[in-house]
Amino acid sequence: MTAERRVDHNQIRTNQAFTIVLLALAFVLDAPGLAAFTAAVMLISAAAPSLGLFSRLYRHLLLPAGLARPQAIADNPEPHRFAQLVGGVVVAAGSLALVAGLTVPGWGLIGLVIVLASLNLFAGWCAGCTLYYWLHRLGVPGFDRAPVEMTR
Q1: Is 79 part of any domain?
Q2: What is the number of other CB atoms lying within 10 angstroms of the CB of residue 80?
Q3: pLDDT at 142
Q4: Does the pTM exceed 0.90?
Q5: Can you say how many angstroms the Cα of residue 106 is from the centroid of all Cα atoms in its chain?
Q6: In this structure, is residue 146 part of a structural domain?
Q7: Which domain holds residue 98?
């Protein structure tokens, strides 16, 4: 029997909140550089979660200050990392489109990530996690984690 794996969903929500705020601010300020910075943070977080800026702020600032509390629940981290990777790639593509002068597609891609991150933050539905589990169900190599049975 393997040990139960747990994921801190408040840390994930914190990442989403930072992502939403920074990308919305990038749009309001017409700041493609801020969107590109956010994409870099997302991609680094997906590749090396312990180095993720938003997660570090959560662990080293928000938790010690009592502004957040952990909510570790039975879950797999891989689908969340995959969602972060997909979001980071989409924001990076949007940022590149902006630099190329393609403002509508660029902000459209970034807006899509804002909407999907908001759905996850406020409604608890993770599009990237859903995609990960669909790929798992199809037997795609690398997507080897099945959904964890949730009991509440």
Answers
A1: yes
A2: 23
A3: 93
A4: yes
A5: 19
A6: no
A7: 6-137
What is the DSSP annotation of the chain? -PPPPEEEHHHHHHHHHHHHHHHHHHHHHT-HHHHHHHHHHHHHHHH-GGG-HHHHHIIIIITTTTS----EEE--HHHHHHHHHHHHHHHHHHHHHHHTT-HHHHHHHHHHHHHHHHIIIII---HHHHHHHHHHHTT-TT--PPPPPP--
Q: pLDDT tens digit string along 75-125?
A: 999 999 999 999 999 999 999 999 999 999 999 999 999 999 999 999 999
Number of domains in the chain: 1
pLDDT tens-digit map of 45-89: 999 999 999 999 999 999 999 999 999 999 999 999 999 999 999
Query: Has residue 71 been placed in a domain?
Result: yes
